[in-house]
Amino acid sequence: MTDSTVPTIEDFQSRAADQGFEFELARYAAALSTHAGMRDALLRLRKVPLSFLEPTEPNSALVWIENGGESK
């Protein structure tokens, strides 16, 4: 799967099976719905260049994510 493809329920089933799990169809549908709701924000964050030179504290990382990946 690439950034330009949208996963399917079958993708989620395959990933779960690879790890030895199997769930009811409703759980895969819920996972897909959650993924779809977060996908655009995740893709925006993936485009933000990260500096690996500065240490990041967990609280500041959460604020950074809440700000859409922008330092303010």
Structural commentary:
The protein is mainly α and 72 residues long. Helices cover 57% and strands 0% of the residues. It contains three helices and no strands. It has helices at residues 9-18, 25-46, 58-66. α1 (9-18) crosses α2 (25-46). The longest helix has 22 residues, at 25-46. The N and C termini lie far apart (33 Å).
Number of strands: 0
Q: What characterizes the major β-sheet?
A: none
**Cα distance, first to last residue?**
33 Å
- Give the strand content: under 5%
What is the H-and-E element order? HHH
What would the principal axes of the Cα set say about the shape? elongated
Low-confidence sequence ranges? none
**Residue-averaged pLDDT:** 82
Instruction: Classify the helix fraction into a percent range.
Output: 55-70%
Structural class, by secondary structure, is mainly alpha
Counting DSSP H or I runs of 4 or more residues, the number of helices is 3
Instruction: Give Rg in angstroms.
Output: 16 Å
Structure at a glance:
The chain has 72 residues and is mainly alpha-helical. The chain is 57% helix and 0% strand.
